[in-house]
Amino acid sequence: MAPQLPHAWELRLTDLQESDGVSALDVTDLDACREAFAGLDAVVHLAGNPSPTATFEELLTPNIVGAYTVARAAADCGVRRLVVASSIHAMSGTEDVVQVRSADRPRPGNLYGATKAWVEALGAWIAASSDTTVVALRIGYFLEDFSGSEAAHVAHRTAWLSSRDATDLVRAAVVAEDVSFFVGYGISAHEHRRADLADTIERLGYRPQDDAWRG
Description:
CATH superfamily: NAD(P)-binding Rossmann-like Domain
CATH architecture: 3-Layer(aba) Sandwich
Helix content: 25-40%
CATH class: Alpha Beta
Structural class: alpha/beta
Shape: globular
Number of strands: 8
């Protein structure tokens, strides 16, 4: 997403391993996070184990400890906006035929989804206890190339988030005004949607364009 974000933004990209244009950062290291976040306007936290079948031991460090560390460091550094990656799996305990909404309380159907409910709770805590505002994004089925066999899975199709729309979602979450704490959905503009996007579009100014039914 980084090359597609507004050119006026000064991005400080991090990952576990350093690479071209990307600095190394362990999100479980509080001092390192404070150093990395110093002077930043916004932090977008996308790190974590994304597997819906991951065990507690596999999720504990990246998804629970890491999420806390990032949230704590962002607040300590006075970051204006913290954007955290929740997941549509925070609602995977609901039936597929039910369209989920931003106001719905988490109902995870797996441990991974439970860690994302934890991320949302952390965001609410930070927003209530500091000057840092928080947007939690229940991201759907992110895949750059969505075609062929993937498109045959209706559940994937209704929750797909394209690269272009993911970029706009992050942009919107960073710049949205009059937001203290908000939980939004990250899926594209499908004719048939797993999640209702009305609140996300209205509150964040998100402008999804792609539709898995249009090909």
